[in-house]
Amino acid sequence: MIDALHRLFGEHFGAGPELVARAPGRVNLIGEHTDYNDGFVLPCAISRQTMVAARRRDDGQVRIVAGDLGGVTTAFSLSEPIQPDSAAPWSNYVRGVADGLLEAGLDLPGADLAIIGDMPQGAGLSSSAALENAAGLALAALAGQPDFDRSRLALIGQRAEHRFAGCQCGIMDQLVSARAVAGAALLIDCRSLECAPVSLPDDLAVMIVHSGIERGLVDGEYNLRRQQCEAAARHFGVAALRDLAVLPAAGGLDPVAYARARHVVGENARTLAAADALRAGDLASLGALMAESHAAMRDDFQITLPAIDALVELLQQAIGSVGGARMTGGGFGGAVVALLPVAEVKRVRAAVLASYRTPAGEPPLIMIETPAAGASLL
User: Fold this and answer.
1) What tens digit of pLDDT does each residue of 72-112 get?
2) What is the CATH number of domain 200-369?
3) Across 44-68, average pLDDT
4) CB neighbours (10 Å) of residue 237?
5) How far is CA 310 from CA 100, 152, 160, 329, in A?
6) Alpha-carbon Rg of the chain, whole angstroms?
7) Which residues are catalytic, by number?
8) Separation of alpha carbons 172 and 162, rounded Å
9) pLDDT tens-digit profile of 168-206?
10) What stretch(es) of the chain map to CATH 3.30.230.10?
11) Using an 8 Å Cβ cutoff, are 320 and 301 in contact?
């Protein structure tokens, strides 16, 4: 991928880059829709990643080429207010982080940027967060700050989502992509931004199965779920649903908002318990917690689809009591994550390929991952 990136940069900008930044995608093991409720999540970074090659310019222009989109280009000026571009929505993540870095006080130079990645689109593996972190780190390095604080980088990426992409996401995706530790999941307190690595045993595999149903979060449903959770928090008189250890009686709260709150309160408890089970190597308890998480996403949060539910059931039956499976990501399509012994991968993979087809009738993409490190300069 690095060779392809250098070719792309040279073809479009006539010389080599000064630096290359990379940031990984992520898969969330458990803790869905808890991040924007100030709760707990347990994701890990994956080997699939986005790379950004960069070279400074002296005219205040930022020129971008996207290799994954057939070499499409766009540009904007740092000397004018940066605005989202509806004609090149993929570039809004870069525009947003540039705007955020300027707001943070960095003296950004102009830049030529080339982008390439190997994450399947619509799988729910946070390609947008990887792009935000890689682009942000590249721009910060050009501005003389190659060690730019990774938590600040993540917050700037989240700001880009809110202001430039229209998705009111939490901090999980950006923070794990920025701060992940190789070989470990990251237990994140999304209020304090405290990150505690939780090592995965060497004989435990992370299997990601792309359902083939591309999901999108900026279609109203994700933002609606956030609004419903915020309404529930106001009803119960707390700053966020994270502050409820036990869900009170509904007390007149709309039944749909109450169901959303039931998922979040339960999911926070499940996430903390899953981290403990992972530390103890208790795969049976971990699998049960993953099953409970998926059921709550299906019944209370209503973000799964029948094909996703069937894929999770297929994986759970194939894995048995030595691991578990659940939908991962914001919902309405995307991928399923499973944790299982490495020795069982071949058998479980065969079971999936024998019984599941994407909506296009194709075998699903199956990825076997080990936790990767967070954003870095190459």
Assistant:
1) 999 999 999 999 999 999 999 999 999 999 999 999 999 99
2) 3.30.70.890
3) 96
4) 9
5) 41, 39, 35, 17
6) 21
7) 173
8) 14
9) 888 999 999 999 999 999 999 999 999 999 999 989 999
10) 2-196
11) no
Q: Are 369 and 200 in contact (CB under 8 A)?
A: no
Nearest C-alpha neighbor of 310 from the set 217, 222, 212, 220 = 212
Domain spanning 2-196, CATH architecture = 2-Layer Sandwich (3.30)
* CATH 3.30.70.890 domain extents, the chain: 200-369
Report the length, in residues, of the chain. 378
Q: What is the mean pLDDT of the chain?
A: 95
- Are 26 and 46 contacting, i.e. CB atoms less than 8 angstroms apart? yes
Kindly give, in sequence order, each residue whose CB lies less than 8 Å from that of residue 250, ignoring residues fewer than 6 positions away: 258
Residue at token pair 């019944």: 299
Q: How many CB atoms lie within 10 A of CB 245?
A: 8
